[in-house]
Amino acid sequence: MSETNTPAPEAAEGHRYTAAMAADIEARWQDVWDAEGTYEAPNPTGDLAGDPAVAARPKKFIMDMFPYPSGAGLHVGHPLGYIATDVYARHQRMTGHNVLHTLGFDAFGLPAEQYAVQTGTHPRVSTEANIENMKVQLRRLGLGHDKRRSFATIDPDYYKWTQWIFLQIYNSWYDADAGKARPIAELIAAFEDGSRAVPGGRAWAELTAGERADVLNEYRLAYSSDAPVNWCPGLGTVLANEEVTADGRSERGNFPVFKAKLSQWNMRITAYADRLLDDLEALDWPEAIKLQQRNWIGRSEGARVDFALGDEAITVFTTRPDTLFGATYMVLAPEHPLVEKFIPAAWPEGTHQVWTGGYATPAEAVAAYRKQAASKSDVERQAEAKDKTGVFTGEYAVNPVSGEKVPVFIADYVLMGYGTGAIMAVPAHDSRDFEFARAFELPIRCVVEPTDGRGTDPAEWDEAFVSYDAKLVNSTGEGISLDGLGVVAAKAAITDWLTGRGIGEGTVNFRLRDWLFSRQRYWGEPFPIVYDEDGVAHALPESMLPLELPEVEDYSPRTFEPDDADSQPETPLSRKSDWVNVELDLGDGRGVRSYRRETNTMPNWAGSCWYELRYLDPNNADALVDPEIEQYWMGPRESAPHGGVDLYVGGAEHAVLHLLYARFWSKVLFDLGHVSSAEPFHKLFNQGMIQAYVYRDERGFPVTATEVEERDGKFFFEGEQVKRELGKMGKSLKNAVTPETICEEYGADTLRLYEMAMGPLDVSRPWDTRAVVGQYRLLQRLWRNVVDEETGAVTVVDAEPSEQTLRALHKAIDGAGGDLAGLRFNTAIAKITELNNFLTKAGEPLSRPVAEQLVKLVAPLAPHIAEELWHRLGHTDSVVHQDFPVADPAYVVDETVTCVVQVKGKVKARLEVPPAISEADLEQLAVTDEAVVAALGGAEIRKVIVRAPKLVNIVI
């Protein structure tokens, strides 16, 4: 260690541990740790390689979820997870691990862009200022990050590789036969040599460049498409389904969201649905998170069935093909592409008035209904409401098993994003179809015999009969009869029948949709894609990366009136014509040509899909990550067959979006041979939330929490009574407490201890500033146990500790050590507190060996005071890399245990005996005990049952 490692000068209040002394100790040791690279984790190779002996230790890669650097800064709720991972990382270092723990910043996204629009400040300027502020706040907490590895997603050296990964995905296709991604060049070669048929039947050489691009677009894992999207005019951008609230509004800004058809970039995540589902089993994740991912992926087995409609066919996916004979109408999603193809000019003769919606023609009815449906979110459309809406298209399709003509409706309860966007409606056996059929006076036919005694006439029913354990009825047609079969047998029989006639087949469907990857924003990664004069997309060569964002005068996409559903996106980049229109030589042998750049940018999820990899090798200019380094930190191992980060801590709110996207990118990179880990995060832990009381006035508006007074159980603000409720902590709720406030009053170590002691890490807990003092007093008692408050001298002695002290020490080591390893920080602190209190009251001088073990025990939780005391005890090296104390089993075991002695089933004596006492010795002690002898009263002992060391039962 350097000469900076000297004890603190006298504080203003002598040698007491005060907030002023804590501030001095903490700032000084943070400077030392930074100067000496205390937390730098060596790689096995490369420019971050360190001592080979250190790198040879078992590794531990610990991560927090990417923070976004908000201009509001941190409140005390934000660092909960960061402190927890820091405590765990420190404990792992002390138990012999080479620990990689660092933190970067997820810095692209809407908040910085909105601030730029409002103020004219470049998003980079405000974002970098926010990052610097956040770094200062986090440093004050004493977090042991390897700062050499930190970065922000807005760094061109970082997003160069985000763009590179996009190109790997763009230049890949999913080979279903091989079950993995392969380079698109291999697919092109197969088309060229004829080993794979070109869709449409023509030879590859006969296709134009545009036609080839269209064919490949249907295979690429990153592809463009004209598809229904969530268009938000108020924000001027499209949104992913997950960014739209249940009531059809934008998560940010609360603007209306409409369905529109736009050309967008997509990621073919659906190709990986099975693997994303199956590989969950090997991950050490909370079961609730796994369940959310399973539900989002939504695997279901059933059949594809074709219903003829003129020269077209409406294809449906159904999990109940056994009920085909009960399909009395069809429903298409309003966005279904077939709707526009077959709408007749007039209503068929005899069309039911309820079906027309009151419109004169089918075209008018369909157009009006589609506009109405576009204003609803998918969640809102699927809500279980009794009022079903829809409109008849004016056409009929043919039920393939019965030959019956069935009317075709559009209705918003059918989604284009699930299955084929069309359903066969079996109202007798589906609740939503039943309600729709009743509303539109459609036939309801029973084909699954009810087992609840209601009979087979749906006219007498109040609801649909849904069962997977019943027999089929009314289900006989040409060449097929399902009558009398159970559901399972009937599904198999009808699927075979459909397959044999080429009008259907067994298939698997997923709820998961492809990932919409375009945003009409400025502040995001530019796509490394250009278009030629024919509109054909071309990837930029790697030598042209990174493609940096240009400077623009107007950061805002064009926004519209929030309810202007017919508006179209206009991106900020599209207005930068000298950047959009370029002359480039792409190295494809065609020389310099004119191109137009893609003017959408990537979503804010892009940078967080792979950041764990860049932590490993942040300065590598030649590769995403060195394979040897990636294998060392993230490669598969016995406990983690798919590889991944050893511990990933973050909020449960990322259960689907971030985690699913990151898993998808990992699997593509794994398939292409760029990484050895098929999963990004092996162990996931969701921390709870620190909540705070919100005080609201009679209008329901929050008032400043720190200015509220409590009187007789009631709360008052400026003399007026207010209501108190428990909720989130935040600036808008006027209840935020900053880390600086607590650090100034008590010190960072106290804040760390309090947040870890509040309760189990995975549950939410209320903040109470008044309770922080409890942990402050713990540190003060710890200080007094080692340092004389009057003189500043170390008071420990070299004498041997008593056996009682050793027992207290080793029990604390045993309990706290296991708790720290298991993320049970609140119980670890309780055991350390118990030990510290024992030593305070022991009535004997604290021996040096006990003091040193105590300091090391505290070091993961309160590192600054531990480092200070360690050096005051005479050490010159850092406590950070000391071995964590190991409990002596001899002292962990209780010195004595209580043995209960029963006579005729009643307790007559309690004996204090050694834990290892033999049955014979315990029996002898029991039968000769005075109280037992008195209870026997001279009676003959028939039998003695001994369960050493805790029970003796004497039968007389």
TrEMBL record:
Pfam families: Anticodon_1 (PF08264), tRNA-synt_1_2 (PF13603), tRNA-synt_1g (PF09334). CDD domains: Anticodon_Ia_Leu_BEm. GO terms for biological process: leucyl-tRNA aminoacylation. Residues 806-918 form the Methionyl/Valyl/Leucyl/Isoleucyl-tRNA synthetase anticodon-binding domain. HAMAP family: Leu_tRNA_synth_B (MF_00049_B). Residues 555-574 are annotated as: Disordered. This is Leucine--tRNA ligase. It comes from the Bacteria. It catalyses: tRNA(Leu) + L-leucine + ATP = L-leucyl-tRNA(Leu) + AMP + diphosphate. The keyword Acetylation does not apply. A motif ('KMSKS' region) lies at residues 728-732. The keyword Chaperone does not apply. Residues 65-170 form the Methionyl/Leucyl tRNA synthetase domain. Keywords: Aminoacyl-tRNA synthetase, ATP-binding, Cytoplasm, Ligase, Nucleotide-binding, Protein biosynthesis. GO terms for molecular function: aminoacyl-tRNA deacylase activity; ATP binding; leucine-tRNA ligase activity. Belongs to the class-I aminoacyl-tRNA synthetase family. ATP binds at K731. It is found in: Cytoplasm. GO terms for cellular component: cytosol. Residues 294-498 form the Leucyl-tRNA synthetase editing domain. InterPro entries: aa-tRNA-synth_I_CS, Leu-tRNA-ligase, Leu_tRNA-synth_edit, M/V/L/I-tRNA-synth_anticd-bd, Methionyl/Leucyl_tRNA_Synth, Rossmann-like_a/b/a_fold, tRNAsynth_Ia_anticodon-bd, Val/Leu/Ile-tRNA-synth_edit. Its EC number is 6.1.1.4.
